[in-house]
Amino acid sequence: MTDGTTLGVGMVGYAFMGAAHSQAWRSAGRFFDLPLQPDMAVLCGRNAEATTAAARRMAGATPRPTGRRCSAATTCS
Fold it and tell me: At 11, which CATH number?
């Protein structure tokens, strides 16, 4: 859920490309006139420990490790 000024972003993956895309989302507002500020909300990954560590590094996203699905509707189960 956002406060109306942010867009919650969910990302699958935390290794090199996950880190690159996380950085891109964090800096998108410097390059584009965005109506909402991107906010890294959820990070999904296969390894629970690595996903949790990466979520802390990537702007405090909520980690969703192994066995959980992330959907476009911003729900994880």
Answer: 3.40.50.720
How far is 60 from 19, CA to CA, in rounded Å?
13
Cα(21)–Cα(11) distance, rounded to whole angstroms? Answer: 8
Number of domains in the chain: 1
Tokens of 44: 């999904």
Q: Which domain, by its residues, includes 35?
A: 6-64
What is the per-residue pLDDT for 76?
Answer: 44
Number of neighbouring beta carbons within 10 Å of residue 15: 11
Whether the Cβ atoms of residue 30 and residue 5 lie closer than 8 Å to each other: no
Structure tokens at 14: 């935390």
Tens place of pLDDT per residue across the chain (77 aa)? 456 788 888 888 888 888 888 888 888 989 999 999 888 888 888 888 888 888 888 766 788 765 555 554 444 44
